[in-house]
Amino acid sequence: MSILTIVLSILLPPVAVAMKHGVGTTLLISILLTILGWFPGVIHALIVNK
Q: What is the similarity comment for this entry (predicted)?
């Protein structure tokens, strides 16, 4: 994972997931988790972009 990906995963989790996987179900899950709470969105982004 690059530094840019890590920073985006922390600040804007859906953007980091979209950069890696594009528009799809992974992005939708990331958006929903970020809406439910910032921390679950960050964890999901870090795991998916691993």
A: Belongs to the UPF0057 (PMP3) family.
In tens, the pLDDT along 28-43 reads: 999 999 999 999 999 9
Contact by Cβ (8 Å): 49, 10: no
8 Å CB contact between 27 and 44: no
Q: What is the pTM of this model?
A: 0.88
Q: Which DSSP symbol is given to 24? A: S
Determine the Cα angle at 33 with ends 4 and 46, to 5°.
Answer: 30
- Closest Cα to residue 46, out of 37, 19, 29, 1? 1
